[in-house]
Amino acid sequence: MATSLPSLASLRAFEATARHSSVTKAARELNVTPGAVSLQVRELEQTLGVTLFERRPRQLVLTEDGSIYFSTLRRAFRMMREATEELTARKRAPVLTVSCTPTFAAQWLVPRIGAFEQQVPGIDVRISTTNRLTDFDNDGVDVAVRHGLGRYDGLVSERLIDDDPVPVIHPALRAKQPLDTPSDLARHALLHDVHRQDWRLWLAAAGVEGVDPGRGPVFVNSNGAIEAAKAGDGVALVRLSLVARELAEGLLVAPFPEGVMTGLAYHLVYPPAALDRLPVVAFRTWIIAEARAQEIIEDQTIRSAQRPTLKAVR
C-alpha cells in the first residue's frame, strides 16, 4: 500500500523555513503570514510523527530527522523548479548572450544587431559588456568577442576583424595643427585606452621615431578616447570599423587610413559545444559575414584615401 504524502503547502513551508532558518523569511518568500508557516510546519510534524525543528529562543535548529528530510526535499524542490523552467522555456524565445567589450558593443555590434534580429527573428539577444575574460561555465555566456592574439586554451577562436588601428582626429584640430605625416604626432596629444598599448605598437610598426607613446590622457576604454577625439582633445588610435559612422559624417578624419599590421585582432570565441545550439550557429554565421562585408568597405575607404602606404610589419 502506497504511503500518502503530506500536503504540498506544508512541505513548501518546511523547506523554505529550513533553508532560511527563519519562519519570517519563509513567510515573506511564500507570501503568507509567519503564523501560517508555523502552523503548516507543526501539521507536517504531526503527520510524520517526528520533530523537525528544535525550537530555541529566537532560533530554529533542524533536528537530525529534520536535517535528513530537508536534504531530500531540497533536491526534490530543485528538480521540480528545473523541470518547470525547462518546460516553460520551450514556449519562450531562445536566449543568446554575447559578451564583448563596451567599445566593441557601442561602436560595432549594437548598431548592427538589429539586422541580425531581422534576419533571424525569434532569438532574444542579450549583450553583456565587460573588459575581463569570459568564464563560459559560470557567466551564462554563449559567445564572446575578444581583442588580442586569439589564443584561448580549450576554446574555439575565429579571427573576426583584423585590428590594424589608425589615428583619427577632429578635422578642426587637424586644420589648426597639421597632421600630414606620422612624425607630426609629436605635436599632438595621444589619447589612450587603459586596457591596451596600441600607440606603442603602432608607432613601432610604422617605424616612427621621436614620438613618446606614453604621452597623453588615458581613458577607461576606447569609447572615452573616441569621444575625446571628437571633442578635439587629441588623436585617438582605433580601428576604422569602430568609427565608420563618425568618419562618414565628418566628425573625425583618418590621415593615415591604411594602418599598420600589428598582429592583433578581434576574435569570436566560444566553447566547442556552443555550436550545438542553433542560435549560436546563426549568430556565428551572421557576424562572420558582417565582418567580411566591413572589410570590403574599409578596403574601399583606404583606396579612396590615396595616401602613401605606411610600413607594414608583423
Give a quick rundown of the structure.
By secondary structure, the protein is of the alpha/beta class. The protein has helices at 8-20, 23-30, 34-48, 64-89, 102-119, 171-176, 198-205, 222-230, 244-248, 278-305; strands spanning 53-56, 59-62, 95-100, 124-129, 143-148, 156-162, 166-168, 190-193, 218-219, 235-238, 265-270. It has three domains: 8-89, Winged helix-like DNA-binding domain superfamily/Winged helix DNA-binding domain (Arc Repressor Mutant, subunit A); 95-163 and 265-298, D-Maltodextrin-Binding Protein, domain 2; 166-263, D-Maltodextrin-Binding Protein, domain 2.
What descriptors fit this protein?
five-stranded mixed beta sheet, 314 residues, D-Maltodextrin-Binding Protein, domain 2, Arc Repressor Mutant, subunit A, four-stranded mixed beta sheet, 10 helices, 3 domains, alpha/beta
